[in-house]
Design brief:
- The complex is a heterodimer of chains A (164) and B (261).
- Chain A has 164 residues and is mainly alpha-helical.
- Chain A is 95% helix and 0% strand.
- Chain A is built from three helices and no strands.
- Chain A has helices at 2-5, 7-143, 150-163.
- The longest helix of chain A is centred in the middle third of the chain and has 137 residues, at 7-143.
- The radius of gyration of chain A is 62 Å and the shape is rod-shaped.
- Chain B has helices spanning 35-52, 63-82, 91-108, 126-148, 166-211, 214-258, and strands at 18-20, 25-26, 29-30, 33-34.
- Chain B contains six helices and four strands, in the order E-E-E-E-H-H-H-H-H-H.
- In chain B, helix 1 (35-52) crosses helix 3 (91-108), helix 2 (63-82) packs across helix 3 and helix 3 (91-108) packs antiparallel against helix 6 (214-258).
- The chains are: A mainly alpha (164), B mainly alpha (261).
- At the A-B interface, helix 2 of A face strand 3, strand 4, helix 1, helix 2 and helix 3 of B.
Chain lengths: 164, 261
């Protein structure tokens, strides 16, 4: 076993070169290079974390904006519906008033026309009475040679007309 | 290695040979640049090159940078899970330990023998694993006494121990604590050595079987070779697991010192 057989002659050289090489590894690599590698990893982790945080806050902002937009949108829709309702009500009202006005005009016209008709009917009836009375006077004078006064003829006609 | 006689010495691979400066000395101690030192250097350089891929510092990492960050994150998570927030300051040490052992184990398994280079796994030497274990254990002791002072000795008295049991439990806990650096060092050393010895023994079966004739070759050599393929895969797994176990235990021991109970 050379490890034991040679120990007396090699231990000092093994120790010396191990201290030099391991010292190099520890001070140059362990103390010099390793912290920078770990810094890089730490920086990357921090970058990823901050990016994630930024993404999260952007998402939150977007959510808030969407919420605000939705609320505004709802309000706008309500306002629009309100407006439409009001316009509808207004239109209905104006239509009703117009209709009422027109109806009133038509009614008055109708009344006037009826009055006119009634008047003309009454006139016509009166005329017919006069004509009938004169005709009755005339008929009585011609057929029976009886002279009937105008008033008597008139009342007789009235009597006859009432009976129909 | 197959020698002239056709025999394979499974232990020869662990021999340390000076390559340069056989006579270099510091205060009388030899510091020759050996094949072991060469592989330590290769490990350190390979790890350096590997880490360069993690230095691109791009926001969207490529594959290489991703791999480096996976390893750093792995150690970071391990310390966070075992030690907690205070564990972060040990990441450089545990990461160096883990990657150094992992690269050493894996580089030692490279089939560079095919091109005539002798691969050498320096983690199969307890002179190396011992130093790494002692370093880790020293950190535990220093941190423990620095943070808790003499109160650190309460580590050896588990919570809720009845008073009469303390004299018995204290030595047991103390011994189990003192054994830690040895178990840490021996586990890695033995695991790496055993795997390499096994592979060498099996390769000896393959070579000697075919040398003894086609019948032996088919009977012994071919099954041994198939077994070697499987065990090589297992060794790659062991290389990772042992590096992980070393780093995990070191961080668990640091946790003891950092968060006393």
């Amino acid at each position: 076993m050379p490890q034991i057989a040679q120990i007396a002659e090699i231990w000092s050289s093994q120790l010396f070169w191990l201290l030099i090489t391991f010292g190099f590894v520890f001070f140059v690599i362990g103390k010099g290079m390793l912290p920078r590698v770990m810094d890089t990893v730490g920086m990357r982790d921090a970058q990823i974390a901050s990016d994630l945080a930024a993404a999260q806050s952007a998402r939150d902002a977007a959510d808030q904006a969407e919420e605000a937009w939705r609320m505004r949108e709802n309000a706008n829709r309500e306002a629009a519906q309100d407006l439409v309702g009001k316009a509808k009500a207004k239109a209905q009202k104006s239509t009703e008033t117009k209709l009422a006005k027109v109806q009133a005009v038509i009614d008055t016209q109708l009344e006037e026309a009826e009055a006119r008709i009634n008047a003309s009917r009454a006139e016509a009836a009166a005329e017919i009475e006069t004509v009938a009375a004169e005709a009755a006077q005339d008929i009585a004078a011609r057929l029976a040679n009886v002279s009937v006064t105008k008033t008597a003829a008139k009342s007789a006609v009235k009597e006859a007309m009432r009976r129909g | 290695m197959a020698q002239a006689s056709g025999k394979v010495d499974p232990m020869y691979q662990f021999t340390v040979e000076p390559l340069l400066g056989e006579t270099w000395n510091i205060a009388g101690y030899n510091i020759a640049f050996t094949n072991s030192a060469l592989w330590m250097t290769i490990t350190a350089v390979a790890l350096f090159i590997f880490m360069l891929g993690g230095m691109k510092r791009e926001l969207v990492p490529g594959r290489w940078q991703m791999t480096v960050e996976t390893f750093t994150g792995f150690i970071d998570d391990m310390l966070e899970a075992n030690v907690g927030k205070e564990g972060r300051k040990y990441v450089p040490y545990i990461f160096s330990l883990f990657m150094f052992i992992l690269f050493a184990n894996l580089l030692g398994l490279l089939p560079v023998g095919l091109i005539g280079v002798h691969p050498f796994t320096f983690t199969s030497h307890f002179t190396v694993t011992g130093v790494l274990a002692i370093m880790s254990f020293s950190i535990v002791l220093i941190v423990g006494f620095w943070k808790h002072g003499l109160h650190f000795f309460s580590l050896f008295v588990p919570h809720g121990t009845p008073l009469p049991m303390i004299p018995i439990l204290f030595p047991i806990e103390l011994i189990s604590f003192m054994v830690r650096p040895f178990s840490l060092a021996l586990r890695l050393f033995v695991a790496m050595m055993a795997g390499h010895v096994l592979l060498k023994v099996l390769s000896g079966f393959v070579i000697n079987g075919w040398n003894a004739g086609a019948g032996y070759g088919l009977l012994v050599g071919v099954p041994s070779f198939i077994l070697m393929v499987g065990i090589s895969a297992l060794e790659i797994l062991v290389a990772g697991i042992q590096a992980y176990v070393f780093a995990l235990l070191a961080s668990l021991y640091i946790n003891d010192a950092e968060n006393l109970h």
